[in-house]
Amino acid sequence: MKILIAEDELLERKAMRKFLEDNFNELEEISEAANGREAIEQAAIFEPDIIFMDIKMPGINGLEAIEKIQNTLPSIKFILVSAYDSFDFAKQAMHYGVKEYILKPGKKTEIVASILRVKKELAYEAKEMAEKRSLIEERFISKLMQHQSFDKEGYHLLKEYFPTFQCGYFLVLQQGDPVDEADVRTKLDKHIEHPFIVNPADGRVTCCVLASSALNKSEILMQARKIQLEFGDCFLGLGYAYSTMESLSKSYHEALTAMYQLTRQHNRKYGFVEVTEEKDNRMDVIVQLLDEMEKGNEHESARCFTENRELFSPDDLEELYFNVKQLMEEHHLSLPDSSITELKSDESWQQFITLCCLTFQEYYQSNQLMEKVKDYIDEHYKDGITLEEMAEHVGLSPNYFSNVFKKAFGNTFVEYVTEKRMKEAKYLLMENDYSLKEICYMLGYHDPNYFSRVFKKHYSMSPKKYQQEIFKK
């Protein structure tokens, strides 16, 4: 437990420090601040668990300091100390969530009781946070293991819980005996210096390492050797390191395959997946199939799969599924509504491959269509065209056209057209051949005031102000 004492009276501050040191053995560190500004600075550096905050201090007072500290460090608990028994102070303190209030000179029993209550609150919050993080990590690693696409929630969790992520990989450890999660975490923590997530089940430990720096193969092997020795009689399969979250599913598949190989061969205890000649042949087939699929050739893709079906074991089919998924994600396309567990027959696989090819065909057709849309907008953006008119022109429903347009250009139709109009507006204002009202009508706007508001939103100044700035230069 770390404590900061913010008190402008030196003797009071030292007396409180001595009292805390004499009565609480578990204190890690105590720091001091002589005023509100120092308290804010010390809190940012020291990040204490508890702050004893005097209310009346020169410059920034205690309540103002609490407000500023809570903006950046909301988990810190405050115990207010004051010589004034004022309801107003207590009311303001309650507004900031402060529950402990000690009047000077504070009785020892009151101080001890306050700290114990705050400690209990901190312990409860820590337990809640640990449980919440455990559930989030479980959901996070499941997404990676099951080849699920990363959505906004996934990236938000990554940013919040693993903000320094640069590189990651999977390891899969197989033991004969049931595993204890706490024991597993303790053992892994001895040898993995980066953040990691663990999923132990049925005598197997799956671990995803999320490093803040690049990792090479030799580093991973050295780490694996130490882990294998730590666990004793086990097999440890390794996946290669990747720099994107989408690729980590591939690392999991590699680690799982490597673990299966190790248990069958029994000639080594840890390592990466071994690539055999047969594996090379399968990879050649997968590359050929993906090439045909990317071109949208459903007949060639289906033929390639059928003619080489005997090469694929269930594990190989899972790898094929992952490669198809990765290919489609590279083009920002969604897989057909078929999970790997639903692809149980050759017919279901052929249907899956055909649907993927059709998705690529639609993708290329949409791209060609969007090129026509772009040309049409370039010609008619000054005419005040609407999304509904544009959708009707290309024969699509407004809703579908809106989705396809945003996927192709990254902006909505309105944002795209408005951007073109605003760029043209800047050019016309620089030329200074037309009045603002004329420019407004030339760009398809019917209300000069609305035109001015749109321009100001884009460039943080009105058209008139922009023109004045141009001619000042």
Automatic annotation (TrEMBL):
Q: Which InterPro entries match?
A: CheY-like_superfamily (IPR011006), Homeodomain-like_sf (IPR009057), HTH_AraC (IPR018060), HTH_AraC-typ_CS (IPR018062), Sig_transdc_resp-reg_receiver (IPR001789), Tscrpt_reg_AraC-type_HTH (IPR020449)
Q: Which positions fall inside the HTH araC/xylS-type domain?
A: 371-469
> Transmembrane residues, as ranges?
none
4-aspartylphosphate found at: D54
| Keywords, comma-separated and alphabetical | DNA-binding, Phosphoprotein, Transcription, Transcription regulation
Q: Which residues form the Response regulatory domain?
A: 2-119
A Pfam family matched by this chain, by name?
HTH_18
Can you say what this protein is called? Answer: Response regulator
Q: Which organism is it from?
A: Virgibacillus siamensis
